[in-house]
Amino acid sequence: MTAAHTLTVRRVTTTRAGGFSAPPYDSFNLGDHVGDDPEAVRRNRERLAAGIGLTPDRLVWMEQIHGRAVEIVDGPRPEPVPATDALVTTVPNLALVTLSADCVPILLSDDEAGVIAAVHAGRIGARIGIVPRVLDAMVSVGARLDRVGAFLGPAASGRQYEVPAAMRDDVEKHLPGSATTTVRGTPALDLRAGIRRQLTEAGIAAVAEDPRCTIEDKTLFSHRRGAPTGRIAGVIWIEGPR
Question: CA angle at residue 153 from 151 to 158, to 5 degrees?
């Protein structure tokens, strides 16, 4: 049996409860770029690390810019990985973190190969192809697409994510399956539907989804519902020997 077969992949999605931040970031805000008190964010990140059984230095963060850059990381990073919206690793006990407040957090893994990824996929990143880029990066370090499983975290739902019709049509052209209408009958985007289709067409058979809408669910942060606000985290790591 290889080492990869002995490893377990863990995934966590946070809510806004249980932290140290004051309103409007109350209370478990994990974003350090939204205007919150840096000390509160530091304490929240320490609590996240402790909650998943790791030390804070084993969490890898990104400077998310709504792009399609992917970084393969092989160890802790003292600072957020600059100008990056997806991380890939094969290193056990190294947690990859994606932050969101309406965008789609995607957690991917090939459990047999021991390859994981965390992706921040907003409207722009999904439109310009962050998902195919991260799948290519995973394959480059040993993953096989037919073994990869995907989890789509809480995000703005098509029921609420209203956009101009021209924007909806443009995103649909690049991310088929994402065009929809809101509960009010106005043009909208369902990014998770488009991403699910994109993953399936790439050969990813196992796609799970947290159905919660960040705009509707007040236990989650939502930039659309009220800015400024905090960020929830999607976290993935390979649990290995300490």
Answer: 115
Domains in the chain (CATH in brackets) are 9-238 (3.60.140.10)
Q: How does pLDDT run across 163-200, given as a tens digit for each residue?
A: 999 999 999 999 999 999 999 999 999 999 999 999 99
**Ranges of residues in the chain whose predicted pLDDT is under 70:** 1-6, 242
Amino acid at 56: P
Among candidates 105, 75, 107, 98, which has minimal Cα distance to 11? Answer: 107
Tell me the one-letter amino acid at 184.
Answer: R
Amino acid letter, residue 218: K
Helices (DSSP H) in the chain: which residue ranges? Answer: 38-51, 123-128, 130-140, 165-174, 191-201
Residue that the structure tokens 């931040």 belong to: 21
Rounded to two decimals, what is the model's pTM?
A: 0.95
Radius of gyration of the chain (CA): 17
What φ, ψ does residue 154 adopt, rounded to 5°? -55, 140
Residues 6+ apart with CB under 8 A from 84: 62, 63, 64, 65, 67, 69, 70, 71
